[in-house]
Amino acid sequence: MTAQILEAVAIAGRNLGYASRAFFRSHAGGPWTGHELRVYRRIAAVGLVWLATASETVGVPPTSPPAGMVTVADGRFVLSNAAGGRLADASLVGTILVVQATPELVLELRVDGVRNDAAAVGSALTVYEVAVREDDGTWRRACPANAKGLAEAVPLRGYWDTQGDHHDIDGTFTLACTATALGKCVRMGYRPWQTAPDGRSFRKLHQACTRMLRADYCGDGRSWTKDGTIINVFDGYGIQVQDPRSDLAFEAAWAADGAVCVAKPRLPQRHDVAMIEAACPARLRHRTGAECTLARASRAADVLFNESSAR
Asked: How far is residue 263's CA from residue 269's CA, in Å, rounded to a whole number?
């Protein structure tokens, strides 16, 4: 079975009273990596199948599965049916969702586990273990395992296209795996549903984070990094704070649509700033090398910053 899937990220929480110092590994996968499932339509368009345990929870006989609807709010699934029943969090375990993954493809997703990820930056993040039914009837994990061996995901509103742009279409969601850029950025504290103290949405910061982790300088979906490359991430909101290291140097500032400027390439053994600027001159002309400084880039709004190897 093949499904259009996407390189993405996760979400949660509203407490902004935290800061984190952390180094992250950049993610080279393109927007379509086979690790995120984008769902075009609400489950109501196809129907919602409840297993016996779930049906009993909402008081509906398991022999008469109701039509239902799934919504995604603050990185969490909430399922409801015509009888007024609602399922969320741990009560979702055992539920099978029949979803339209692409205009041509209908899939069954089974919720195998739900937990609070206390290690996520900020408040605890609700994460899901999800399996997909194969054509032969067997089930496989919907997500690859992350660095801790956990194959988990967070549902996000809307979907991401092949250029890495986010489309917040009502009734659609993306199953964002925590092993990939979309999920990593949520766990790092950039949660799209949150707002900063000044009222600005964090949606742009989450999007900027996905560009940064993938070194998508041009904002066109192309990655200029390789898996496992260490970067130091920081911002002006106190979510990720700079932890200077002598072996790292300022690389770039990032906005939702790509790099604001690029001081140095992430992989200097493969690229130089002239190559990057030539790839998207309208965006980066006169914004590379010595023209890109942290002080200058800090004037922009809704931006993130990173350092990478100085060598």
From this structure: 15
Instruction: Report the amino acid identity of residue 210.
Output: T
Each residue's pLDDT tens digit, 35-88: 455 443 333 222 233 322 222 222 233 333 445 788 898 999 988 877 777 888
SS3 letters for the chain?
CCCCECCCECCCCCCCCCCECCEEECCCCCCCCCCCEEECCCHHHCCEECCHHHHHHHCCCCCCCCCEEEEEECCEEEEEECCCCEEEHHHHCCCEEEEEEECCEEEEEEEEEEEEECCCCCCCEEEEEEEEECCCCCEEECCCCCCCCCCCEEEEECEECCCCCEECCCCCEEEEECCCHHHHHHHCCCCCCCECCCCCECHHHHHHHHHHHCCCCCCCCCCCCCCCCEEEEEECCCCECCCCCCCEEEEEEEECCEEEEECCCCCCCCCCHHHHHHHCHHHHCCCEHHHCCHHHHCCCCCCEEEEEECC
Residue 171 zone, left/alpha/beta (φ > 0; ψ -120 to 50; rest): left
* 181-227: pLDDT as tens digits: 999 999 999 999 998 888 889 999 999 999 999 999 999 999 999 99
